[in-house]
Structure formats: structure tokens, C-alpha cells
Amino acid sequence: MIALMTPAKAKRKLADNLRERRLAINLTQTGLSKRSGVALATLRKFEQSGTVSVDNLFKLMLVLGGLDKVIEASAPSPSNFGSIEDVISGNETPKRKRGSRS
């Protein structure tokens, strides 16, 4: 899949999405700040600019939901190719079973 979104647009969309989640559960910025342990000023900056540390993002997502989906989305996908030459030629190689020496 080709990503057509810039990092700046992704940050903005993420901030908008989490703000919408917060509002959907009728939680104020102050309330989210207290529940998550993220400073109110940091939360406000995040909702305005999309800028936040990974630690604080995870704290916010823990309260608002979605942290498990972020972890799942970052999991590596199994490759059907053994080398770059296989990718170029389109040949799929069978995956070795873990621990086998074939």
C-alpha cells in the first residue's frame, strides 16, 4: 500500500481523531489530562498542532482507546520473498519453518 499522506497531515488527522474521541465521551481537556497523566498544556498543544511525544500519545490512547490497534498496525508482515532478487523476478520462495535447517 502506498501512503499518500504526509507526516504533517497524519499528525493533524491523528490529533483531530483523538479530539473527536474525547468529545464523543464528553471528556474535557482537563479531565483527559488528569486521567492520562499528560500535562494540560501538552494536550492543548497536541490538539492544536498534532505535536506530541510517543509516550504521551500512548497515554492518551490508553484512556481514549485505540492503543491496541496501533500496536497491531505496527506488527511486521510476513514476507513471501527470500531475497531482493525474488522480489524482482516475482518468484515466491517457501518460508522455512523456525528452527529447521533446510
Q: Can you characterise this structure?
A:
The protein is mainly alpha-helical. Helix content is 59%, strand content 0%. The chain has six helices and no strands. It has helices spanning 7-24, 29-36, 40-49, 54-64, 67-73, 84-89. The relative contact order is 0.10. The model has no long low-confidence stretch (mean pLDDT 88).
Keywords:
102 residues, 59% helix, mainly alpha
Number of helices: 6
Task: Label the structural class.
Answer: mainly alpha
Question: How much helicity do the residues have?
Answer: 55-70%
Low-confidence stretches: none
Radius of gyration from the alpha-carbon trace, in angstroms = 20 Å
Order of helices and strands: HHHHHH
How many beta-strand runs?
0
Largest sheet: none
Measure the end-to-end span. 32 Å
The global form is elongated
The fraction of residues assigned to DSSP E strands is under 5%
Mean pLDDT across the residues is: 88
Quick take:
The chain has 102 residues and is mainly alpha-helical. The chain is built from 6 helices and no strands.
List strands and helices in order, with pairings.
Blueprint: H1 7-24, H2 29-36, H3 40-49, H4 54-64, H5 67-73, H6 84-89
Helix pairs in contact: 1-3, 2-4
